[in-house]
Write a structure and sequence with these properties.
Strand content of chain B: under 5%
Low-confidence stretches of chain B: 1-5
Helix content of chain B: 55-70%
Radius of gyration of chain A: 24 Å
Shape of chain A: elongated
Shape of chain B: globular
Structural class of chain A: alpha+beta
Order of helices and strands of chain B: HHHHHHHHH
Distance between the termini of chain B: 19 Å
Strand content of chain A: 25-35%
Mean pLDDT of chain A: 82
Mean pLDDT of chain B: 80
Number of helices of chain A: 3
Low-confidence stretches of chain A: none
Number of strands of chain A: 8
Oligomer: heterodimer
Helix content of chain A: 25-40%
Number of strands of chain B: 0
Radius of gyration of chain B: 17 Å
Structural class of chain B: mainly alpha
Number of helices of chain B: 9
C-alpha cells in the first residue's frame, strides 16, 4: 500500500524535450562497450608509447569483436522480422475500413506459432478528443480487448500484440474487430464498429 | 477548471500487453500518463530538477527492459513504476550523501515543506491520476503529525528506523510503533484503491 504514497507528491509537467530524450535513451540498443572504450582510451593516453600501442591493439581487437557481435545481433533481428512477416506460420490479413468518410486499411500479420500480432493501421481518421479506436480479439468465449489506440494524428500506427494462446483456460482467437469507444476504452464493444472479421 | 483525466484499468492492461510485446508507441503513451508523477516524486525526494529528470530516464529504461518482471497478479502497473522511481531517487540521494552532507538547499526546501508534501497546484488537475493523488494526499494528511513525520522520513528520504530515531531523538521502539500504526491507517484508508480506476 505504501507504493501509492508516491502519488502524494505533486506532479510536475516535464519539459517538452524530456520525452524525446527519455524515449531515445530507453529504446537505444544497449551499448556496453562505451564504458570499456572510454576506459581504454584513458589508459592509452596515460601510458603512451609502446605500451599505449599495445593497449590500442587490444582495444581495437575488443571493439572489432563487439562490432561483429552487434552486426550478428542486427542480422538476427532482421531475420526475426523477416520470419514474422514471411514465415509460413504467419497469416496476412488486410481489411479495408472506412472511418470519418475516408478509406483506409488495417493490416494484421498474425503469427500463430509465437502468438503475436503485428498490426498496422493506415488511413484511419483521427479520433475525436473523447474517443479512441479499440481493437478486439474475437474468441470462442466472446470479445476480449486487444488494445486501446487513441489516434490524435493523421499518421499510420504500428503495434505489436500478444494474443491469447488458446491453451487450457485461455480463449481461442477466431478473429478480430475494431470499434470506436470512449477514450479510456471499454470492457466490451459499445460504439460504432469499424470492422469485424473472422480469420 | 479542466476536468481530471482518468486512466482506466482496461487502458492500463492494454498498455502493459503492448509494452510486453515490445510496442515502442506504447512507451510514449506511458510517458504521457505517468511521467508527471515520476518527475514529481523524484523532485520531491531530490529537490533537483536535473537529477529528477535523470531518474525519469532511468525509470523508463528499467520499465522498457524489465516489463516482464512486473507481475500483474501482484499489483497494478502504476505503483510498480512508482516504486522503481522511489528506489532510483533514493539511490541518487544516497550517492549524493556519500560525497557531501545534504546541501543547504535541500534542508531549506524540506524545512519550508514542514515534512509533508504540499498539495499540487490546481493547474495540474488535468494530469492523469489526479483523483488518486488527491486521495493519497488526503490519507497522508489525515495521519497525526507524529506519524506523518516518520512516514515522510522513511518513504521520501529512505531513512532506516534507527536513522529516524536519531534524527527525531526518539526511542527506536517509538519510531517502529508510529510507522506500524501509520501503515495500518494508510492501508485502511487506501484499501479501495485498486488502480487508477474510472
Amino acid at each position: 500500500m505504501t507504493d501509492w504514497l508516491g502519488l502524494s507528491a505533486a506532479p510536475r509537467t516535464p519539459r517538452p524535450e524530456l520525452k524525446g530524450r527519455v524515449l531515445a535513451r530507453a529504446l537505444a540498443p544497449r551499448r556496453r562497450w562505451r564504458g570499456p572504450l572510454a576506459a581504454a582510451a584513458m589508459i592509452t593516453l596515460v601510458m603512451g608509447g609502446g605500451g599505449g600501442a599495445w593497449w590500442a591493439y587490444r582495444t581495437i581487437g575488443t571493439l572489432t569483436t563487439e562490432r561483429d557481435g552487434l552486426v550478428a545481433r542486427v542480422q538476427a533481428l532482421e531475420d526475426t522480422v523477416s520470419t514474422f512477416i514471411h514465415g509460413p506460420a504467419t497469416r496476412l490479413i488486410q481489411i479495408p475500413v472506412s472511418t470519418g468518410g475516408r478509406v483506409g486499411s488495417v493490416t494484421i500479420f498474425a503469427d500463430s506459432v509465437r502468438h503475436r500480432w503485428l498490426v498496422r493501421c493506415d488511413g484511419l481518421a483521427p479520433n475525436a478528443r473523447d474517443q479512441a479506436y479499440q481493437l478486439w480479439f474475437i474468441t470462442d468465449s466472446g470479445m476480449t480487448t486487444a488494445a486501446v489506440m487513441p489516434m490524435d494524428e493523421d499518421k499510420p500506427m504500428v503495434m505489436a500484440l500478444e494474443m491469447p494462446r488458446g491453451g487450457e483456460g485461455d480463449p481461442r482467437v477466431l478473429g478480430a474487430a475494431m470499434s470506436i469507444e470512449p477514450r479510456a476504452g471499454s470492457a466490451s464493444p459499445s460504439g460504432p464498429m469499424v470492422f469485424h472479421r473472422l480469420l | 477548471m479542466t476536468s481530471p483525466k482518468r486512466l482506466s484499468q482496461e487502458h492500463q492492461r492494454s498498455l502493459q500487453r503492448r509494452l510486453k510485446a515490445g510496442d515502442e508507441h506504447a512507451l510514449g503513451e506511458l510517458f504521457d500518463l505517468v511521467a508527471p508523477w515520476i518527475l514529481g516524486l523524484a523532485f520531491r525526494i531530490l529537490q533537483d530538477e536535473d537529477e529528477a529528470e535523470d531518474v525519469v530516464g532511468d525509470v523508463f529504461v528499467q520499465v522498457w527492459r524489465h516489463i516482464d518482471q512486473h507481475d500483474g497478479g501482484r499489483g497494478p502497473l502504476v505503483p510498480w513504476i512508482l516504486s522503481i522511481a522511489r528506489n532510483r531517487s533514493l539511490d541518487a540521494l544516497r550517492r549524493r550523501r556519500r560525497w557531501w552532507r545534504k546541501s543547504a538547499h535541500l534542508e531549506q526546501a524540506q524545512v519550508m515543506e514542514g515534512g509533508g508534501s504540499a498539495p499540487a497546484a490546481s493547474h495540474e488537475a488535468a494530469v492523469p491520476g489526479w483523483p488518486v493523488h488527491r486521495e493519497v494526499h488526503a490519507a497522508l494528511a489525515a495521519l497525526s503529525e507524529e506519524q506523518r513525520r516518520v512516514v515522510v522520513l522513511s518513504y521520501f528520504e529512505g531513512l532506516s528506523h534507527r536513522e529516524i530515531a536519531q534524527r527525531l531523538h526518539l526511542p527506536l521502539g517509538t519510531v517502529k510503533t508510529r510507522l506500524r500504526m501509520a501503515h495500518q491507517t494508510l492501508t485502511e484508508g487506501l484499501r479501495h484503491l485498486k488502480d487508477w480506476v474510472e
